[in-house]
Hints:
Mean pLDDT: 94
Oligomer: single chain
Low-confidence stretches: none
Number of domains: 1
Amino acid sequence: MFVGHLALGLAAKPATPRVSLAVLLTASQLADVLWPFFLALGLEQVRIDPGNTAFTPLDFVSYPYSHSLVMLVIWGVVFGAIYRMVTGRNGRVFIVLAALVVSHWILDWITHRPDMPIYPGGPKYGLGLWNHVAATMIVEGFMFAAGVWIYVRSTRPRDAVGRWGFVSLIALLVVVYVANATGSPPPSVTAIIVLATIGAATMTVWSWWADHHRDVILTPSRSAGL
């Protein structure tokens, strides 16, 4: 998944109103943020194999440190703990951020073929939604639309940047998703590493910028959770 993961980050805004959207999206995509670095270090492997599934030309040979369930639980605890330590936010923030990190495995388990490890060197699972392009795009599309709706309902633009910065972010994510689903296979693993790193950095900066220009619509329950 791609926009399906981001949908959960967007939808988490009402539960953690003072946490930047950049942090929420990074938590939901932390496995994919870490992945290119482990690839570059030679600790994980991917192979370009058109037809591996109908949706993606990539064969995820090995990614035990970025994508196994046990490691994502550890990364989730670390991510949530560091954010709480730096910001002093309450326990709800820790739980939400850790849950977003772990949710990556669950959504990938639904979409991937059986290549999602439980722990490094352990058994691998996957339901294979990626074998059906239309079904994948429908499921992710509905998830993403719901996430955007929840985020928009819980915030309002402070100025033109808050309005159009957010609109442009969503448009960019949709364009990237469609391009990945319909475009040509990447030319090399190096290209995957570079593009994934640039993409993660761009999403982080852009989402922080747009979210920074939006105000949270506070309710009594949200105020109590700050």
